[in-house]
């Protein structure tokens, strides 16, 4: 367990009241971390934090946050620092995709919303936690990207562009901050059974088409991503930086 021990570590996870983010805060707390549960809705944050604290006393706080609001992101970091005095691990999980369809019909405001929430907010938040990581010469940042960032899509074009940009953001930050012993990586999930991806798995016929070409021939579960996030935040991932971990049931290999 020592390789994956997060005792004494503090982690902020955005978008952590359902799906992949919720699985990550639960598993990080299970491995000893203090976790900050964050999403837009306060009641949802309190619910998840309460569930964690019921199992692991005083291990979670709820801090609602709109990732598209820079001041709100700073409040998220400031609240964490006031409570626990440090941020050891940042997991940028929250993302949006308000548009499905061909790129020629993509409204400008939808494009701006996707790029702002999926790229710029991660850039902002990373630089809000980096100064104290640099001071301590330790820290990890993990961005939840997508296999959409590795291939084109006729209906998710802007989202895929944003997820490819997240991979490059991780590489750039890894190069800049590696000398300060700060690691920055991405996780690129394939199809996971989350509310965010419900349109791709709720219908059995669509689910069959979505998974039939992958070697494992099934949808993934949030916990199957959470383990990778624990790895990247723990001593087990201490020599990994600037990389994208693809966890997709083999979809991109087939």
Describe the model:
With 254 residues, this protein is an alpha/beta fold. It has one domain: NAD(P)-binding Rossmann-like Domain (Rossmann fold), CATH 3.40.50.720. Helices cover 45% and strands 14% of the residues. It has 8 helices and 7 strands; from the N terminus they run E-H-E-H-E-H-E-H-E-H-E-H-H-H-E. The protein has a 7-stranded parallel sheet, with helices on both faces. Helix 1 packs across helix 8. The protein is globular. The model has no long low-confidence stretch (mean pLDDT 96).
Low-pLDDT stretches are none
CATH level 4 superfamily: NAD(P)-binding Rossmann-like Domain
Helices and strands, in N-to-C order?
EHEHEHEHEHEHHHE
By secondary-structure content and strand pairing, the structural class works out as: alpha/beta
Mean pLDDT: 96
Report strand %. Answer: 5-15%
Number of helices: 8
Helix content: 40-55%
In short:
This protein has 254 residues and is of the alpha/beta class. The protein has helices spanning 19-30, 42-55, 70-84, 108-136, 157-177, 198-201, 204-211, 223-233, and strands spanning 10-14, 34-38, 60-62, 89-92, 139-144, 182-189, 244-247.
């Amino acid at each position: 367990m020592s390789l994956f021990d997060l005792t004494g570590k503090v982690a902020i996870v955005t978008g952590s009241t359902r799906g992949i983010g919720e699985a990550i805060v639960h598993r990080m707390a299970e491995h000893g971390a203090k976790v900050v549960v964050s999403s837009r809705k306060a009641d949802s944050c309190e619910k998840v934090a309460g569930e964690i604290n019921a199992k692991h006393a005083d291990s979670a706080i709820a801090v609602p946050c709109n990732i598209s609001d820079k001041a709100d992101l700073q409040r998220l970091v400031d609240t964490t620092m006031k409570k626990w005095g440090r941020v050891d691990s940042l997991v940028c999980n929250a993302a949006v995709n308000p548009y499905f369809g061909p790129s020629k019909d993509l409204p400008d405001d939808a494009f701006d919303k996707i790029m702002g929430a999926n790229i710029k907010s991660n850039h902002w938040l990373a630089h809000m936690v980096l100064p104290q990581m640099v001071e301590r010469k330790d820290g990890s940042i993990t961005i939840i990207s997508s296999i959409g960032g590795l291939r084109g899509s006729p209906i998710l074009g802007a989202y895929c562009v944003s997820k490819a940009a997240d991979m490059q953001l991780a590489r750039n930050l890894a190069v800049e901050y590696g000398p300060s012993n700060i690691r920055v990586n991405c996780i690129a999930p394939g199809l996971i059974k989350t509310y965010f991806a419900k349109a791709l798995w709720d219908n059995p016929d669509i689910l069959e088409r979505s998974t039939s070409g992958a070697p494992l021939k099934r949808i993934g579960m949030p916990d199957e991503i959470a383990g990778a996030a624990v790895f990247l935040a723990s001593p087990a991932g201490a020599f990994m930086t600037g990389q994208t971990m693809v966890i997709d049931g083999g979809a991109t290999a087939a």
